[in-house]
Amino acid sequence: MDGISLLTITVLAVFVGFEVVSKVSSTLHTPLMSGANAIHGIILVGAIIVAGQAADPLVLAVALLAVVLATANLVGGFVVTDRMLEMFRGRRDREGPR
Amino acid sequence: MSVLDPTWTGLLYLAAAALFILALMGLNSPRTARRGNLVGAAGAAIGVITVFLSARLDNIPWILGAIAVGSAVAAPVARRVRMTQMPQLVAAFNGVGGGAAALVALLELAHTGNAWVRLAIAFTLLVGAVSFAGSAVTFAKLQELMTTRPVVFRGLPVIMAAVLLAAVGAAVAVVLTGSLPLASALLVLGLAAGVLLVLPVGGADVPIVISLLNAFTGLAVAASGLVLGNVLLLVAGTLVGASGTILTRAMAAAMGRSVAGILFGAFRGGSTAGSTAVSDRPVRSSSAEDVAVLLGYAQRVIIVPGYGLAVAQGQHTAAELAKALQLRGIQVDFAIHPVAGRMPGHMNVLLAEANVPYEELKEMTEINSEFKTADVALVVGANDVVNPAAKTSSGSPIFGMPILEVADARQVVFLKRSMRPGFAGIENELLYEPRTTLLFGDAKDSLTKVLGAVKAL
What we know:
The complex is a heterodimer of chains A (98) and B (457). Chain A has 98 residues and is mainly alpha-helical. Chain A has a domain at 33-92. Chain A contains 4 helices and no strands. Chain B folds into 3 domains: 1-80; 87-269, no CATH class; 288-456, Rossmann fold (3-Layer(aba) Sandwich), CATH 3.40.50.1220. The radius of gyration of chain B is 25 Å and the shape is elongated.
């Protein structure tokens, strides 16, 4: 893809990123941070590409380390966020519909 | 194995990116937050499956094995971690993500001759390494593997400046030559910069640093998207970088601080570190029965829960005590400071876990004017968030942070483990006031004793 298209995508994504979190109450700061943390675990896709191209054993070893780290970020991030949010849901269920 | 053509690959990456945006939107409101998180996980799954189906990959068994190892390590830890230790786990996950981005960039260096791509590689290396090392120090501080107070030593600003200068030099050299040894040197300099960046940050400010490093990792992932020409990485990383920046500023604002002040405040202040010495000034220590009398014959009690309550797993006992007092016709509220605990919003998560009804949790801005009408403010395992030094002592590391005005209440009761200062390491003058009563002991034990005494009244 050419440079201008990539720049366009980046700038638009910056605005979306600013916009989606601008009105969050402090109650949800922690889960939101944790959810965003899980999302950047998508670097796993990059790690998989690099590992899939590796010809040299040393390069493969480093790439596989990157895959392990990225998977921990991605999987662990979503699981721990879900655990946090489980508690919010539990509270609403007890209160019943309002 | 290349099942998907570039059009389908692009469409699936677009779908994954859209799901990430929907996930962040969902996380905006308590009602949709959990679904939002699952939507994000679905987006991630689509992204990962797409790369397997579209790219020409060797070593697939090895890759699948590595994914299995990463999941097998992270998922059980994430599932079992106690909610009090959740901030350091988030810091750890963030750090390994930054480390992964840096490694990806390092390995891509051999595949490119383009100076712009090398620039993106240098950026990813540096920022990813800062995030990895910074998160590691954050983890150590939160886990209390090292001191939680700011670590400042003579010459730190000079060393920091030298490391950053060397890093910029190494980055320029990497862009010009594409040399792998220089790139490795840049990685090491990034690690050093990450450690030096977080060392001087005081314990109370660590949550904001986690959020900042989270944004850093996002930026590193975005840059690695440019390196690999992968739009999904670019969009997802940019989203996290941008939203993380806003979130960091919002958290800093909730504490009345600036991000620059948090990072560089300790540099300027010199001796802002406070004291760990246990003071021998006289305090009014009391028994559980006396505290029960104070509480039982009050009209209005405001409970201020802090991290000490969570560590002692005393949330349930606190909730029971509130109920027992309400049975006596006393109005009871919980006052929640936005940064009570170890992360903004952490205390809300912990009390939700203990079944405290939502309407009894009052935010700081809502309850601060009501302390004047309270007979007793019961501070359980909190210290920094009620420390008047934040208002009065301009040299204090927490100066400027909004606090809960417990001093306005007619009586203040502290349940504390000891006279040791709190996480930020600052003495609390309120402890020595004549209207302050202290009950020493583990928060849960003390609450249980007070609860028993209240029931016996």
